[in-house]
Amino acid sequence: MTNPEAGLRMWQGNHACAEGAIAAGCRFFAGYPITPSTEIAEILARRLPLVGGKFIQMEDEIAAMGAIIGASLGGTKSMTATSGPGFSLKQENIGFAVMAEVPCVVVNVQRGGPSTGLPTQPSQADIMQSRWGTHGDHPIIAIAPASVRETYDMTIKAFNLAEKYRNPVILLLDEVIGHLTEKIVLPDPAKIEIFDRKKPDVSPEEYLPYELNDTDIPAMANFGEGYRYHVTGLAHDDTGFPTNDPEKIRLQLERLNRKIERYREEIIEVENLETRDAEVLVISFGSTARSAKRAVLNARENGVAAGLLRLKTIWPFPEKEIQEACQLVKKIVVAEMNLGQVAHEVEWATRRDKPVIRVNKINGEAIKPNEIYAAIIS
Amino acid sequence: MDYLGYLRQDKMPHIWCDGCGNGIILKSLLRVIDKLGWAKDDIALVSGIGCSSRTAGYVDFNTLHTTHGRAIAFATGLKIARPELHVIVVSGDGDATAIGGNHFIHAARRNIDLTLIIYNNYIYGMTGGQVSPTTPTGKKSSTTPYGNPDATFDICRLAEAAGAVYVARSTVFHVGRMDHYFEQALTRMGFSVVEIITPCPTSYGRQNKEGNAIDMLLSLKEKSLSIEKAAGLPADELQGKIVTGVFVDREQLSYLEKYNQVIEKAREINQ
Known about the structure:
The complex is a heterodimer. Chain A is an alpha/beta fold. Helix content of chain A is 37%, strand content 21%. Chain A has two domains: 7-191, Thiamin diphosphate (ThDP)-binding fold, Pyr/PP domains (Rossmann fold); 270-377, Rossmann fold, CATH 3.40.50. Chain A contains 13 helices and 16 strands. Chain B has a single domain (3-269), classed as Thiamin diphosphate (ThDP)-binding fold, Pyr/PP domains (Rossmann fold). Chain B is 38% helix and 18% strand. Chain B is built from eleven helices and ten strands. Chain B is globular and about 65 Å long. Chain B starts with 21 loop residues before the first helix and ends with a helix. The relative contact order of chain B is 0.14. The interface between A and B is large, with 42 and 41 residues. Strand 10 (230-232) of chain A pairs parallel with strand 2 (62-65) of chain B.
């Protein structure tokens, strides 16, 4: 009952996300209804009580984010799911989870914005909000699956990354992926790799919750396990207590901002399709990458040397991977359902060395293969 | 008893001003915890933002100093993850009833097993004396320089209407009663609220010419009236009074008890 058995399923992305969370060891979900993410909450409301977990619908998005941080501090892997407006509301507490280094997963099934926008239609316009939605310099991880099966895998990955790096992880779906129903083959639960937070191996007296160690990732004690310590969103020293000492603040904030970047090679995943000899490189992610794949294959059939670099990791940004894939190309096409949030990063990563053609759409329609194809051959 | 054994002495001096009542509340809370014999490892104290919320840094428990107004939301998750912990939320009038008002009423409705202690000093102290939802109408604050036009919240009546199982109010002058209410609240299953009226000579008293710290403390005695005595009085005679006592004491299944029923039902249906 705990994990779904291996085998065939017909699931939508949101369902795969909910079941992936359970497979990852998530035993607490706090949420608030919002289209197009609501199915994740509905499925977990049904499933969590059956696997020794708990579900709660909180009074608002802010409370849902606070509740998962509290539960994670208690040692329970925790998740919330939302969409645009709710993602905006969660930002302050996401910053708390970053500052206090509390592992948790925040799913954002992107819909059109700004404001109430297009509740039932897809978008990929929360790229920058994922990176900079909360105030202050801070590290973040955001990953974006492009299929139902990958949503399952990447939800598990989101938990593993959160636990490993003691950071909130943003799982960026979009309405297409969330509501797309596909036939998938679930992996053998015994073969799923699960990472749990590193617990302290010292006595409570010696424990430093924000230790400056050579990994940059301090061990994390759970509340109620004999390590009485203090957790705050205030700038703190290695003991976890607030400090105004500029040197101590510098050391902690530099470590915080370094801890994801230094492990970027371990974190970042991209998929290369026909990129080895590509003259035109298409860069895309999420559901748009599916149209991009079709466009690239069509181009190849017509003798155009196109390739696709699909970003599975959005943050930290796959700068080096893009640079490598771009070495021989003559032009770059970035396809995304926003006005160029990733394209801008691509231009920066390639130092505007190659022309970057943007294929953008923000009217609630998915980008079609022929729109990307037209850019490839233009 | 050994108060110091419950405090993180290396974090002293605390930030509270001379004449602030917060220390009296903290001492009462520690006295009751000591009486109950709870182990420090088994207690989590969760707070939000403001003067009251700095309590979390000073006590030697599992302590969580959250974002403004959200302590109850964090505490809800923690309690669900660790039902064996005694989870106490410390908040102020602004933190609990303005920015955190939604979490306050819904925690009461849900009857999650937490004890909420509200230090009510009628003002935003930490930011320098701005109007709060409990600043009496007509009183001055730095953002109501001509007097507060707003009506006030009655925190205890709000908690009662929202569903809390135990609700009481005392002042820092009435220490014995405060101890008693804390003990009752901490040992009740479900959402319990104790509101303590505490003087803020620096930010509230000074702007409203309420005298020095001792004057303010004595005025708590003068203004206080038991809920039993208040019951028979007309509204105009209750103007400016502090009604103290136990407002609610009822038994009702707590959230986690009810959720355990959900689990049973889910298993039954899915067998």
